Amino acid sequence: MTPVPVLLVTGFLGAGKTTVVNHVLAHAEGRRIAAVVNDFGAINIDAELIAGASDGVVSLANGCICCTLEGDLLRTIATLLRREPRPEAIVIETSGVAEPGDIVRNLMDPVIWRAAPLETVLCVVDAAAPLASLEDPLLRAQLRMADVVALSKTDLAAPGTLEGFKAALKARHPTALQVEAPGGAVPLTLVLPEDPTRPPRETPRRRPHADRFETLSWTAEAPLSLPKLQAAIGRLAPRLARAKGFFEPADQPGKVFLFQLAGGRATLAPVDTQRDPGQPRARIVFIAELGPLSPAEIAAAMEGCAVLSPS
Length: 311
Known about the structure:
Elements: E1 6-11, H1 17-26, E2 33-39, H2 45-49, E3 57-61, H3 70-81, E4 89-93, H4 100-107, H5 110-115, E5 118-126, H6 137-144, E6 148-152, H7 162-172, E7 177-180, H8 188-191, E8 213-220, H9 226-236, E9 242-247, E10 257-262, E11 265-270, E12 282-289, H10 295-303
Parallel strand pairs: 1-4, 1-5, 2-3, 2-4, 5-6, 6-7
Antiparallel strand pairs: 8-12, 9-10, 9-12, 10-11
């Protein structure tokens, strides 16, 4: 059978990976592209944010595919290759805490390579982040494996800083191709060409893995007070690496809002969807470095936002 090329999308927490994957799927031009989404938490928010038919998205949650879920990833790819009709390409979105070297090594398995060769490793980088963020060991590991570096959120970068940021990236990874990707706009022909020719790459050596982040998934069967939510997030934000989720505001019953915190910036936006009756009214995932923030603190702050119905 014709090999099915794989696009591996990596990048730090909140860099904009899901936005890039959505752009790739929206501009598939008739190609059947399957998406595999890995989120570091029991609730896979990112999988719900992927556009297109839900049966084209496979969710791997509550772990990281560079370590605890690596077997699940290979089984998922094998399952996708048995689908009828078969996908013409596979996009894998890693968790923001994933070290892609281990994933690349697993994808170099000869059996997987023959059927689903890794075509491109795309690293999404938040261009509005401080220049010092490029020194983060995890981001440096993600950049090290990249064929293409996509600069997201260029519209949010401080005036006059973008060229310096790009130069700093180039100095750290001179062989990677840089592209600006406002709104996730990465050309499909760049990352998934119709005539893939990439040879097998050198298998990266296994690196020691140390847990750095922890996650807490918080749910509530009640709508949330928007002012109290904003105040709670303001208190928690300095110790959070990332947060995201869906909730129903108390003053707009039946509406669903998406909350995201990335790079110290919080956003709220209504989503054009109805809550599944079987789902809680609030579902939020918090990711923090180990130590500074306890699950009890997060739970206490969030429970104060819930608006309970009068008994």
